[in-house]
Fold these 4 entries.
Entry 1:
Amino acid sequence: MKSLFHFSFNVTDLDEARRFYGSVLGCPEGRSTDTWVDFDFFSHQISLHLGPPFKTELTGRVGEHMVPMPHFGLVLALPDWQALAQRLTEAGTDFVMKPQLRFAGQLGEQWTMFFLDPFGNPVEVKGFASATILLLLITDPLGNIPLFVNALKAVPDARRARVIVREVLIAFAVLLAFMFAGQGFLAALGLSDVSLQIGGALVLFLIALRMIFPPPEPSSPVPMNEPLIVPLAIPALAGPSALATVLLLVSQAPERRMEWIGALSVTMLVCALVLLSAERLQRLVGLRVVNAFERLMGLVLVSISVEMLIRGLHALARSWPS
């Protein structure tokens, strides 16, 4: 049996509680007496008892907002969150924090809202995009096209598709391994998520510099080996953000591990299809356009790597003992 969460709190009117939790939130009613009523709160159980509601204080800081503590809530898939936000808005709900997007473009991007039930009990509901969309945003196959084209210049045309598929499979294997044993692996090596992020940012920065300022052509041909694992599988696809994302997914909902594996599989398939088309795009637009686009993307990658480094340093500063 799946473990369920149970939470009991006080309300002052059971009929009003039925209207709000049953009609507005859409929670099915369970057992009841003349002093309490149960609801199926999105597959978890809440019990509402007649009595004075618990005292709360605005002591929790969320960005620029102060939110009531203590509070309870849940996490929904984004379509369910959007539907609930619309119902609450139409019902004239008293929002402490109106529905909004937080951490846009960052790891942990989420939609959130804080509201009060008719008795002043504070509730927070968060919404996340599907795991597949989240992983596609993190791995960014379109943004990786210039990096793959540049790294595969020394690889014969006949082998490039095979190399791309191999690197995607390696990235998939690394992310899958991290999904099962990543936290233990980092702990065994004494590494933190912060060090992983800072190290990945530095590697990406060096790669981006070579894209903007390519080394001069040698006077005599210099044999070059095809890339293996670095920089294509790691950190281009299985970078610090992707590794941290799969760890976050599993840690938040370990019982949905098979769903996360499916999302990762779809993500890697899309990455492979997009990157396999990179050569066709290069032939279509021409070498000069590709070179110009490569330098432009190098500048973008420099900005991304610097942003990753700044976030890593901020996280390091917050964890540094005062």
Entry 2:
Amino acid sequence: MRCLIREVVLLKDEQPRGQGGLTTLRLGWCSGAWSELQVRRPSGADLTATPQRVLQRIRDLAQGHSDDHVAGILTAEGLRTKRGLPWTYLRVSQIRLRHGIPTACPIVPKGTGSRGDGLVPVEAVMEQVGISRSVVGSWCRCGFLHAEQKAALDPCWIRLTAEDRARLDGTLAAHGYGQWRLRAAQQVLGLSAEEIYVQVRAGQLVAYRAHVGAHWEWRVSPAEQPDQAPGRGTLPTTSMADQQPVQQCPEATVATS
């Protein structure tokens, strides 16, 4: 190349250092001809910019996942920030805001509509099921409702699918779902009331609300075992002790916006 190129001239534009710009590269050939190229200089922000493939992944995930879940998915997929750091809720949120990426799963609800992952705010549960805020909190505490909450003071988002509504309004219980009353479940499984709630929250037991006479009661069935419908089995015979009030699940405060 030294036999071909006689001179190289670099001309920098007036952009301040670190802010990028264009550099003009002039090549003087031994033949007397000149060639000119323009090369873009990266800025300091370019050096720490998030790759487009990661931005697109965040853009896709934000339509069905909250920022904390997006961070977990990105980390599980082996993706890191430009600086090599693991993704967190705050870092995902900052990247979204910087690049104007909207989310369909906000932390703070806007109205009573569901968000991108199908979860609904507390007010929607109160309205659709016809219960008070304190009852919603109690059911979340017991595991009768599946709830997600980013932090202690953040609003709760609750799963309320058609199946959940059927569990709560007595429809499924009327068709034989719910193998044991809560006290009977304690006796059969050898568990305390709190241990029953722990298994409900873990998904090992499924809770069904039943309308019996003039009152409502909760019943549970093992999640891995088909529920018994009328004609295929009956609920265990209960004594008067079984029919006494079961230890109530403590009410929990549900934060709202």
Entry 3:
Amino acid sequence: MAFFDKINSIAKNVGDKTGDAIEMAKINARIASERSAMNDIYRQLGEAYYAHRINGGEGEPVEAAAIYSQLDQRTAAIDEAQKQIVAIKAEGERRAAEAAAARSAMPTATTAASVRKKILPAWARRRSSCRRTTSPCSTPLRWRKPGRSWPERSRT
């Protein structure tokens, strides 16, 4: 059952990461939209200053205070969205650390390759990994199972 628990935790972790990535993409799109709106507001501010200057006005135009408050609102929205991204990343890292701790606590499965690595000497491991050949002329090895005799060679 530990194997299925491990698969379940991995699948849940992948699902959480995907959900986090989607949420961060939405927030980044909202930030890009806010920045685009800020560029329009900056353009309006420039037009207001230019019109005020052309009409012979000194100092700031009357509309500048309202435009500044719009810019402040947009900047606050961007800051809040960036804080949300930081919180999502921190939560994802925390979940990943918990999953890693859970995986390290689970026993690992013993595979045939790991057993072969522990039992066989290095030269035998090299041989078994090279299509079971013994020499450069590619003569195949004849492996026998324990307790059985060597197979007869066919004379063809």
Entry 4:
Amino acid sequence: MGHGRPALEQDGCRSAGRQSAYYRYRDSNEARREYDGFPTLLVVTTSAAAEARFAYQAYLAQQRHGTAPLSIFLTTNSRVEACHSGVLGPIWRSAAAPWADEPARVYWLPRLRRQDGTNSGARHPIRQTALTSHSSTAR
């Protein structure tokens, strides 16, 4: 009993390993063949503390790799549930400044450009259908 690493340390090691794998893949020829630019990574955590730990691990991974940072946005389950737009709302923080007490919350999806070059405004909310949480129950 007690011979393994503490749970928080294990989570940090798994997170660091996963992020290193993302960097290696992004910098590989395979990723360049499959993507025109690497996709944004969205991470939903169970708590603000877990979100902060992941942001710190993302910062450390970027420092280790010394290349351009991955595009990573983080949020919590409670923020998704509290926002009327769900995952499409301004609930995401960047992993760039893990030490921020209250990081800025933004939309992860950039505004789409119309063909006439103007920004399109969201006039109608987008319904969240396939993105419901596993913990919700039918009533």
